[in-house]
Specification:
Length: 244
């Protein structure tokens, strides 16, 4: 049985607590207390289910932020999750339940932050996924932007880090290779190479898979890794040098 079948079938739902567990419980018609505190799943399977439902919930609540869900956003959502076509009705059921559920998005963000405590790379990928969906229709609504800012704060990002993230995705210089790498144009070659290598290590899909990062985010990590490599190559070309 796929993870989606397990979620809808209720085989993992009641093992979870907090607002994420409540969504699964409501989806399968079980009585789950939405006020339960977040708990740490005891197995990799329930951990995976918790993370996946949490990411769906955050995506659903963001879709509600600007008052409408566009076809482009739905397609972006499908790209992030890589859901088999036959399971889309089940995912849609959870998505709609999360969108209508009484728990606020901050509750889901806090539970995911607790679940992934100490794994900043995964939380960064979650934020990238939210931006990817928000930008899919060609415009990021101010409410969506504020939403992501609050989620990033809950994830432990500082104000400067949050604004750097926003600049990378929707800033005037978002296409700048320096903005993509999160560095200033005045950076020297040695520091640039050091930053680049650190980013490659942090975002390499194979490393994330080895660390148990849910497969739902591997596509996001792969896209981010490609952006990092392309940005670095462009800077090296602009500087007329070759840095291995």
């Amino acid at each position: 049985m796929s993870i989606w079948g397990k979620i809808i079938g209720g085989t993992a739902g009641l093992a979870l607590g907090g607002p994420i567990g409540a969504i699964i419980g409501v989806s399968v018609g079980a009585a789950v207390d939405a006020g339960l505190g977040a708990v740490t799943p005891e197995t990799d399977e329930t951990r995976h289910v918790t993370f996946t439902i949490g990411l769906i919930a955050l995506s659903a609540k963001m879709a509600k932020a600007d008052g409408q869900v566009t076809r482009e956003e739905v397609e972006a959502f499908k790209q992030v999750f890589r859901v088999p076509p036959e399971e889309m009705p089940n995912v849609g059921r959870v998505f709609d339940m999360a969108r209508r559920h009484t728990a606020g998005f901050d509750a889901y963000a806090k539970q995911m932050a607790d679940l992934m405590r100490g794994n900043r790379t995964v939380l960064a990928d979650v934020l990238d996924a939210l931006f990817f969906i928000a930008k899919a229709d060609g415009v990021v609504h101010p409410n969506e932007l504020n939403y992501i800012r609050v989620v990033a704060k809950i994830f432990g990002y500082s104000p400067d880090e949050i604004e750097g993230l926003v600049a990378r995705h929707v800033g005037l210089d978002q296409e700048s290779p320096y903005a993509i790498l999160g560095v200033e144009p005045i950076i020297d070659d040695a520091s640039l190479k050091k930053k680049y290598r650190a980013l490659v290590r942090e975002n390499h899909p194979d490393r994330l898979i080895a660390e148990g990062v849910p497969s739902d985010l591997i596509a996001v990590a792969t896209r981010r890794a490609a952006e990092i490599n392309a940005a670095y190559d462009k800077i090296v070309e602009q500087r007329g040098g070759k840095q291995g």
